[in-house]
Amino acid sequence: MLSQYLSKIFIGICYGISFPLTITILDYWLKDLGISNTLIGLFSFIHWPFMLKFLWGPIIENFDIPLLSKKMSRYKSWMTCSYIFLIIGIVIMANSNPSTNVFLLILGASLVAIADGCKNIVLYPYQLIGKKENSVGFIASCVNLGNRLGSIFIKVSTLYVAHFFDWRTAYLVAALMIFLIMVINFVIEEPRKKFENHEDFSLKRAYLKSFFVPIKQFLKTQNSSKFLVIVGLYKAADFMMQKMSKIFCIEIGFSKIEIANIIQFYGSITVIAGSFLGGYAIKKLGLIRSMRLILTLHAMSFLTYLLLSEFGKDNSILTFIITLEALSGGAVTSCFIAFFYTIAADLTIYAVLWALYEFSGLIFMSVSGIFANFLGWRLFFCLVPMMVIPNLVMLKKMKL
Questions:
Q1: 80/71 Cα distance (integer angstroms)
Q2: Could you tell me if residue 309 is left (phi over 0), alpha (psi between -120 and 50 degrees) or otherwise beta?
Q3: I want to staple 143 with a disulfide (CB 3.0 to 4.6 A). Which of 12, 100, 232, 303 is the partner?
Q4: pLDDT > 90: what percent of the chain?
Q5: Which of 153, 151, 235, 167 is nearest to 29 (CA)?
Q6: Residue 329's CB: how many other CB atoms inside 10 A?
Q7: What is the C-alpha to C-alpha distance for residues 102 and 296, in angstroms, rounded to an integer?
Q8: pLDDT tens profile 285-319
Q9: How many CA atoms lie within 13 Å of 238's alpha carbon, on the beta-carbon side?
């Protein structure tokens, strides 16, 4: 049990260690350069290649990488290749200057997004090792824990390095961390799966077998349309708050170190506690009831940002806000991951649904700056929590 627990945590770390580099950390970098909130929101579109990972999922599932796959398994070879290109993309970002050469930044970030998406596709079967009907809450909590640990490590370390040195050094250190994670990946347990090896296996046949057929079967299942709505909207409010709340904190005077300590470090630790609360809630209340209750509590936590808009910069108030938001946010993520385990037993379905989730996030994050500028911070913090209402209505009609 301990080895399974640790392996799931490590899989989560692999997810969390690279994703913030093109979203959260990049936002801080751009804000540090004086770029407007609207443009920072629109910069979320840099992450668009990550959403297209479902298109190369069938390729990963059906084809080996020449030469490399002869030395290791199919999953390991694709994972290694993903990490190599991930590191190259991060190094390109490190050597770019968004103020003078935004093209180089977009090139590096796009390469990171593509490689990160490929890595996440390969990692999904690793999550399902040892999965049982009553273990989805446990697996979701462990993966979420690892995700947060990886996210804490990369966010806090990058912010500290950027504070004491510069952003280029921060991203180069991040690339070194990714390399160390790649090395550890060689020793983790692999999914036991036999692959078809046909020399005449065409790309068309691969997509037919591993893409179109699973999707057709999924769409025939009961509640498939409701699943799509829930996946697309469940974290809509959370996406907008994640994007703009840290920008708001910078605007009212919080430093990089204060943000690293309170929001990223303390907040991420609190999220971990929340992830286990989510797993416990699923066990006691069931998945759907837990999703509804915790989503409501998480939306209410957003209202506490009104305290900062009223009283201004205050570390104790920010700590209180982050405690409520992070506890409920960790539980929300555990419920959402468990929901995915329930509806997506196939790699392709997982990839497509996760792409829908990420596309939703991309849209809501990209317009968040426009909404914040148009509404003003107080009205923004009042209206964003109301975005959970459609999902609460949909979940009330849902049965699993």
A1: 11
A2: alpha
A3: 12
A4: 14
A5: 167
A6: 27
A7: 39
A8: 888 888 889 999 999 999 999 999 888 888 999 99
A9: 24
- CATH (one of 3.50.50.60, 3.40.50.150, 1.20.1250.20, 3.40.50.300) for 2-189+221-396: 1.20.1250.20
CA distance 305 to 320: 10
Rounded Cα–Cα distance for residues 364 and 236 (Å): 6
Angle at 152 between CA 147 and CA 154, to 5 degrees: 95
Distance CA 225, CA 178 (A): 38
CA distance 398 to 82: 37
Give the N- to C-terminal CA distance of the chain in Å, as an integer: 27
Smallest CA-to-CA distance from 13 within 111, 126, 114, 90 is with: 126
* Integer Cα distance of 76 and 68 in angstroms: 9
Q: Is the pTM of this model over 0.70?
A: no
Q: With CA atoms as reference, report the closest residue to 113 among 143, 85, 94, 91.
A: 85
Residue 280 corresponds to which tokens in the numbers above?
Answer: 């416990």
Q: How confident is the model over 171-212, as pLDDT tens digits?
A: 999 999 999 988 887 777 766 665 555 555 566 676 676 667
Classify residue 220 as exposed, middle or buried by CB count within 10 Å of its CB (0-12, 13-18, 19+). Answer: exposed
Query: Does residue 357 surpass a pLDDT of 90?
Result: no
pLDDT > 90? residue 334: no
83-96 pLDDT tens trace: 999 999 999 999 98
Cβ atoms of 141 and 149 within 8 Å: the answer is: no
Of 262, 270, 393, the residue nearest 329 (C-alpha): 270
pLDDT higher than threshold 70 for residue 28: yes
Using CA atoms, how far apart are residues 36 and 33, in angstroms rounded to an integer? 9
Instruction: List alpha helices for 185-223, DSSP H.
Output: 203-207, 213-220
Alpha carbon of residue 49 to chain centroid: 14
Least reliable range by pLDDT among 43-47, 163-167, 179-183: 43-47
- pLDDT above 70 (res 3): no
Tell me the C-alpha to C-alpha distance, in Å, between residue 101 and each of 92, 243, 347, 372.
12, 24, 38, 27
* pLDDT value, residue 174: 92
Q: Which amino acid type is present at position 62?
A: N
